[in-house]
Inverse folding.
C-alpha cells in the first residue's frame, strides 16, 4: 500500500479569495486575476471506506495574496477527500472562507472540487462570491502541492507555474448579474430567480 499521509492534501484553497466588491464608480467588471496561498493542516480525521480507499476530513488555515488587493486575507479550507491508498489517486471537495486579517470579518465564501494526484499534487476548480455588496464572483482553476512531512499545502490560482508555463485561467466578475443591483432594476427573463448567497 502506498504511503497515504500526504493524500489528505486536498485543499481548496484554490483559493480564492475575494475581497471587497467592485469600486462604486464601476458598475460591472470581468477581470483576470492571479494569486498564491499557503496553509497548515490544523485538524484531521481519517477512516477506511474499504480495503483500498480512505476518507479524510481535514481543515487548513493560512493566508492568500493576489495581484488584485481585494483577493487577499486569512484563509480557511474545510475539506473532504477520498483516496485510493494503492494508486494515490483521489477526489476532494470542500469550502473555502477568506477573512479580513485582524478583524476576522468574512470577505469571501467558496466551494471547490479537485483531483488528487499520486505525486501529492491537486488540480481543481473553485467558485464563490464575495460577502460585501456589490458582490462579485470568483471562478478559478487552482493547483497545489502538499509537503509530505508537515502536510502543509502551497498553491496558486490563475496560473500554473508548478507544472509548466501554461496558465489555468481565473476571473472575477459581476457583469450581467442582477443580484448585484440590491433590488433595483429587477430582472425579468425565463422566470428563474437566483437568490443571494
Amino acid at each position: 500500500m502506498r504511503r497515504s499521509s500526504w493524500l489528505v492534501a486536498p485543499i481548496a484553497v484554490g483559493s480564492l479569495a475575494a475581497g471587497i466588491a467592485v469600486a462604486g464608480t464601476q458598475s460591472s467588471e470581468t477581470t483576470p486575476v492571479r494569486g498564491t496561498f499557503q496553509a497548515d493542516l490544523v485538524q484531521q480525521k481519517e477512516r477506511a471506506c474499504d480495503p483500498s480507499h480512505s476518507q479524510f476530513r481535514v481543515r487548513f488555515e493560512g493566508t492568500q495574496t493576489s495581484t488584485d488587493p481585494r483577493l487577499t486575507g486569512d484563509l480557511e479550507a474545510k475539506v473532504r477527500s477520498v483516496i485510493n491508498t494503492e494508486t494515490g489517486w483521489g477526489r476532494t471537495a470542500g469550502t473555502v472562507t477568506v477573512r479580513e486579517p485582524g478583524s476576522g470579518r468574512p470577505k469571501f465564501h467558496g466551494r471547490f472540487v479537485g483531483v488528487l494526484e499520486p505525486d501529492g499534487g491537486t488540480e481543481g476548480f473553485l467558485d464563490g462570491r464575495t460577502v460585501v455588496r456589490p458582490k462579485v464572483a470568483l471562478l478559478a482553476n487552482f493547483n497545489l502541492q502538499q509537503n509530505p512531512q508537515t502536510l502543509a499545502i502551497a498553491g496558486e490560482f490563475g496560473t500554473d507555474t508548478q507544472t509548466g508555463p501554461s496558465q489555468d485561467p481565473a476571473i472575477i466578475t459581476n457583469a450581467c448579474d442582477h443580484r448585484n443591483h440590491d433590488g433595483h432594476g429587477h430582472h425579468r427573463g425565463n422566470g428563474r430567480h437566483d437568490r443571494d448567497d
User: Anything to note?
Assistant: The mean pLDDT is 76. The first strand starts at residue 30 and ends at 32.
